[in-house]
Structures are given as structure tokens and as C-alpha cells.
Amino acid sequence: MQIEPSKIILGWQALRSQFTAIHVDPLERKWIGISIAVVGLLVAIITFDALLHGINPPSKVETIESASLHLSKEFAEENLGVQVDDKGAVIIRMVAGRYSFFPKHIQVPSETPLTFRWVSMDVLHGVHIPMTNMSTMIVPGYVAEISTSFPKPGEYPLLCNEYCGLGHNHMWSNISVIAKQDWQAPVRQAVKGEQQ
Ligand SMILES: [Cu+2]
Fold first, then answer.
1. In the chain, where are the structural domains located?
2. Strands 90-97 and 81-84: what pairing?
3. Of 73, 135, 148, 155, which cross-links 128 as Cys (Cβ 3.0–4.6 Å)?
């Protein structure tokens, strides 16, 4: 169906005249303007930040076969947990499954950029570490990647925040954040996964 441009203009004019016919108090008009400006500013900040820092949604459509994680190069059992790659970047590979996070317990350094790569072995899970930017869904079939860092050493809870079944409220774990100078990098070498 083709819409004539003249009809669009007429429709727009009718809409505009309807709006201008409504009486809007100047104070209200001012606040409408301020709210639109605030929304515009926030969208601009998000767009600018995403472009400048190359920020993507957590699951940037990186797919993985959930049913055979143990056979995958990257998420085989011996590759899970904390690893340091040849450039010195700390990468943590974790699997979420009913009703735990694997490995059960990890130690990471404070004040260090960390890249978490999450996958689910069964259903939809979530992961949340309060007071950090770690909050993402872990969708079966996709890799969720989150970059974060912990400013202070301590024990941080790791919670599942997507209802995943009867044991959901028991699905939690914790992360030990060790002072940067006391943390020992694991000896294992980083695995060059297919997905990297
Ligand atoms: Cu859950």
C-alpha cells in the first residue's frame, strides 16, 4: 500500500493543530521541556559511552551449544574458573546450572579489570553481585560477557536473579576478592576457545 506524501503532511498538520489547540500552562510546558531534555541527555550519554567504550549488550549474540558445554573447547570443566591470558587479562569462565554456579568458589584480585564469561547448561538463569555492575541474564545457547572490577577485597555474594525452578532461592554462591598484591594468578594457561 502506497501512502501519498500529501496525505502524510495533512495528517501531521491535523495532529499539530490538535496539540496546539490544547491549553498547556507555561509552567507545565517548561517541565515537559525539561523532561524531554533529561531523556535526551541520558540517551546521548548511553550512545556516547557505548560508542566510545565499545559497550555491547551482555549477550552480544555469541552462541554456544548448551547441551554439550563439557565437550566445548572453552567451557570444558578443566577450563572453568579464573585464568590469565597471554596479555595479562583476567578472564573468568563460569557455568550456571540448576542450582549452582560452577566452579563453586573462585578468588579474584581487587582493583583489576575482570572479564566474566557466563553460560547456562540448562535453563534461563541470572547472575547478580550486589553493589557492582554484575547483573545479567544467562540465556541458554548464548555467552553473556560482563566486564567489572572490585574496588575492595572481601566476600561478595553471587545470586541467581531469574527464577529457574524450585531450588532457585538456594542458587547462590560467593566470590572472594583478594587484595591485588596478595592474589596469585592460577598456573594454568588461558585456553584459546573457539568462541574467542
Ligand atoms: Cu535461579
1. 5-53, 66-178
2. antiparallel
3. 135
Q: Provide the percentage of residues in the chain whose pLDDT is more than 90.
A: 43
Domain 66-178 grouped into CATH 2.60.40.420: yes
Q: Measured between alpha carbons, how far is residue 52 from residues 35, 49, 59, 139 in Å?
A: 25, 5, 19, 27
pLDDT tens profile 120-138: 999 999 999 988 888 899 9
| CA of 10 relative to ligand 1 center, distance in Å | 53
How far is ligand 1, taken at its centre, from the CA of residue 27, in Å?
Answer: 47
Q: Please, which residues have CB within 8 angstroms of residue 109's CB and are 6 or more apart in sequence? A: 90, 177, 178, 179, 180, 183
Give the tens place of pLDDT for each residue, 8-67: 888 888 888 887 888 888 999 999 999 999 999 999 998 998 888 776 665 567 888 888
Residues 6+ apart with CB under 8 A from 58: 136, 137, 144, 145, 146
Confidence (pLDDT) at 101: 92
Quote the ligand 1 centre to 95 CA distance (angstroms): 13
